[in-house]
């Protein structure tokens, strides 16, 4: 009996160890996957955060993720943070005081002749409070003036490494507390303040709001057209028997291998003949047919049992009735896949709109063309450029996130890789 209890205890301990090891492995895997996901999402997060910054904040060194804005007083004066004897004070510039010239002194042993500002043991003293001895010491190829400087009650001869004009700052709560510093090198008192007005500014700049409307119209029409023609073509090639069906399908499928650059010139000439150049119709009608979508639907329709179709024929249902009432309700994943692929392509299309739409015709611009012009118009304001990029990127990202389950299911069910 005792042996049985010992064996049972050993088995239980072994199972607990296996369970702990299993949870440890899963935890490590989840942590690694989370880090990889954050690494992939970081560029999008940085783009979105930069779109909420001011132009000055974008050029802050070192770069920061969140948007900050300098804090100001009620009178509009910028607040700085200055350390005095280990205590941080909130201070503002004393506009009534003129800049004071300070000398930065050190010994001959500590001075850096090649780069005096990198010298060690620097002592900052008002230049008017130091006495020029008239002597100079040459180190390397640079002459350094010798001054008598009083430090902690003791007067000593030091070399003038360099001089700077500094502004006077006073504490906002106690004006008797003052300090001197260079405004550009003094840290600001800042707080997180998203600049949501950047989006309104970008929408009004270069007519981006009209470009969004045009892009939405083109994307919806192209997506609806491609899904419709793909459903009809896929059903015809998968269910309707006619002479040369397979050969015609292979020829149609082979058009996928034709590079777009080969089609640019004849397609543009066709648009000129139809008088569609510089019009939105040229961005829609040529792209409502797709061999890829037809192939996708055909592959999915082949998997649908023929018994359903034959039963519908016996009930007197027409071909269009079978397609509408049987095939389309069963083809949700395939339709979602085709919709997502077409939506992303139509929304991000750039080369063909650039060719067929005149740059000066702002009323017919799409988002990609508007962003191209925004890049030039706001070259000195990268926050506005990234705001436009965020406006262009967010809609397709949202569509993909909402439909990703159907997209994956559609790819798996049609046997595509």
Main traits of this protein?
single chain, 417 residues, MetI-like fold, 3 domains, 13 helices
Structure description:
- This protein has 417 residues and is of the alpha+beta class.
- It folds into 3 domains: 2-50; 70-192, no CATH class; 199-413, MetI-like (MetI-like fold, Orthogonal Bundle).
- The chain has 13 helices and 10 strands.
- The protein has helices at residues 2-50, 55-58, 197-204, 208-239, 245-254, 260-273, 291-302, 306-314, 319-330, 332-348, 351-356, 367-377, 382-413, and strands at 68-70, 80-84, 87-93, 100-106, 123-126, 131-139, 142-151, 154-171, 178-181, 190-192.
- α4 crosses α7, α4 (208-239) packs antiparallel against α10 and α4 (208-239) runs antiparallel to α12.
- The longest helix is centred in the N-terminal third of the chain and has 49 residues, at 2-50.
Percent range for β-strand residues: 15-25%
Distance between the termini: 59 Å
Q: Order of SSEs, N→C?
A: HHEEEEEEEEEEHHHHHHHHHHH
Low-confidence residue ranges: none
- Report the major sheet: 8 strands, antiparallel
Named at the architecture level, the CATH assignment of the largest domain is Orthogonal Bundle
The whole-angstrom Rg is 36 Å
The CATH superfamily of the largest domain is known as: MetI-like
Count of the separate structural domains: 3
What structural class do helix, strand and pairing data support?
alpha+beta
CATH class type of the largest domain: Mainly Alpha
Number of helices: 13
């Amino acid at each position: 009996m005792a042996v049985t209890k010992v064996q049972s205890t050993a088995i239980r301990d072994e199972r607990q160890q296996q369970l702990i090891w299993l949870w440890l492995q899963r935890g490590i895997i989840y942590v690694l996957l989370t880090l990889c996901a954050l690494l992939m999402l970081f560029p999008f997060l940085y783009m979105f955060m930069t779109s909420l910054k001011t132009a000055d904040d974008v050029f802050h060194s070192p770069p920061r993720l969140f948007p900050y804005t300098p804090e100001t007083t009620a009178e509009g004066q910028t607040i700085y943070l200055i350390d005095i004897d280990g205590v941080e004070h909130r201070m503002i510039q004393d506009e009534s005081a003129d800049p004071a010239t300070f000398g930065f002194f050190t010994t001959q042993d500590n001075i850096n002749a090649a780069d005096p500002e990198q010298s060690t043991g620097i002592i900052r003293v008002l230049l008017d409070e130091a006495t020029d001895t008239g002597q100079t010491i040459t180190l390397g190829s640079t002459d350094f003036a010798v001054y008598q400087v009083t430090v902690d009650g003791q007067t000593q001869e030091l070399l003038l490494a360099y001089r700077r004009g500094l502004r006077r700052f006073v504490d906002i709560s106690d004006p008797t507390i003052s300090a001197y510093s260079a405004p550009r090198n003094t840290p600001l008192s800042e707080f997180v303040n998203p600049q949501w007005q950047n989006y309104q500014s970008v929408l009004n700049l270069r007519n981006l709001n009209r470009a969004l409307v045009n892009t939405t119209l083109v994307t919806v029409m192209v997506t609806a057209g491609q899904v419709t023609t793909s459903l009809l073509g896929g059903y015809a090639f998968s269910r309707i028997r006619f002479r040369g069906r397979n050969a015609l399908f292979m020829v149609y499928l082979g058009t996928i291998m034709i590079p777009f650059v080969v089609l640019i010139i004849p397609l543009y000439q066709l648009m000129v003949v139809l008088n569609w150049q510089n019009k939105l119709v040229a961005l829609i009608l040529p792209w409502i047919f797709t061999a890829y979508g037809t192939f996708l639907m055909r592959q999915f329709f082949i998997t649908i049992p023929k018994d359903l179709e034959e039963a519908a024929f016996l009930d007197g249902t027409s071909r269009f009735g079978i397609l509408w009432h049987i095939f389309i309700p069963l083809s949700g994943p395939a339709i979602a896949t085709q919709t997502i692929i077409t939506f992303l392509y139509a929304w991000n299309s750039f080369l063909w709109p650039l060719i067929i739409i005149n740059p000066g015709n702002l009323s017919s611009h799409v988002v990609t063309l508007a962003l191209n012009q925004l890049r030039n118009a706001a070259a000195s304001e990268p926050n506005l450029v990234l705001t436009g990029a965020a406006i262009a990127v967010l809609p397709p990202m949202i569509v993909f996130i909402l439909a990703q389950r159907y997209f994956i299911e559609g790819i798996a069910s049609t046997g595509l890789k």
